[in-house]
């Protein structure tokens, strides 16, 4: 079975409270473009991440706001910042990396919340049923081409609001030579 692969670059999700600390009281995110997962959008806003060994500017803020602040970066970014960012599924941030986040109106020191997102597949219940997979299943996904490789231990996440796609980070995409609208084969 083929699956669309999407490359997820570094980005940030904030609570309403943290968003106001960074951008000002009453601030609301403005959509720049809709993302593939329904209701999610890349906003026009960016923040700066400051770690003990480096800084990364122009980290895109994703909306809408969430219950917990979370920043997703690559391992390469973690090395540049000088922080430990564990590989985890979205939402699993307790005990993860921390840094200073700088917005246009303020800054925020977070003790944890920075992760390297674990590669995963989004599916809605109908898609997962058709594929014979369930929430929490693990699959391998083969990438063909000049830099062919197989991503092992790809976790399947099922939710009624999801649309079928595999998400990997920029380090993984570069390793596989993925540049655009590529597909993988679920094994």
Topology at a glance:
Layout: E1 2-8, E2 11-13, H1 16-23, E3 31-34, E4 41-50, E5 55-63, E6 70-73, H2 75-81, E7 87-88, E8 97-102, E9 107-117, E10 120-123, H3 125-131, E11 138-143, E12 149-158, E13 165-169, H4 170-176, E14 183-186
Parallel strand pairs: 1-13, 2-5, 6-9, 7-9, 10-12
Antiparallel strand pairs: 1-14, 2-6, 3-4, 4-5, 4-8, 8-9, 10-13, 11-12, 11-14
Task: Write a concise synopsis of the structure shown.
This protein is of the alpha/beta class. It is built from 4 helices and 14 strands.
Give me the side-by-side strand order of the main sheet.
Answer: 1-13-10-12-11-14
**Secondary structure tally, helices:** 4
* Helical/strand content category: alpha/beta
Distance between the termini: 8 Å
Number of strands: 14
SSE order: EEHEEEEHEEEEHEEEHE
Low-confidence stretches: none
Work out the radius of gyration.
Answer: 17 Å
Shape: globular
Mean pLDDT: 96
Q: Give a short account of the largest sheet.
A: 6 strands, mixed, barrel
Q: Can you give the helix content as a percent range?
A: 10-25%
Could you tell me the strand content as a percent range? over 45%
């Amino acid at each position: 079975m083929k699956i669309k692969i999407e490359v997820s670059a570094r980005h940030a999700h904030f609570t309403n409270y943290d968003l106001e600390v960074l951008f000002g009281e009453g601030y609301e995110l403005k959509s720049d473009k809709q993302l593939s997962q329904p209701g999610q959008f890349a906003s026009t806003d960016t923040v700066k991440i400051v770690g003990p060994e480096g800084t990364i500017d122009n980290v895109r803020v994703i909306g809408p706001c969430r219950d917990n602040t979370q920043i997703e970066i690559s391992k390469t970014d973690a090395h540049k910042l000088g922080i430990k960012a564990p590989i985890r599924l979205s939402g699993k941030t307790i005990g993860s990396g921390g840094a200073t986040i700088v917005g246009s109106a303020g800054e925020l020191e977070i003790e944890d919340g920075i992760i390297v997102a674990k590669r995963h597949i989004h599916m809605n219940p109908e898609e997962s049923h058709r594929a014979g997979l369930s929430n929490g299943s693990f699959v391998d996904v083969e990438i063909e081409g000049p830099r062919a490789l197989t991503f092992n231990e790809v976790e399947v996440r099922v939710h009624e609001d999801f649309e079928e796609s595999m998400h990997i980070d920029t380090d993984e995409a570069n390793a596989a030579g993925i540049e655009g609208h590529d597909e993988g084969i679920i094994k």
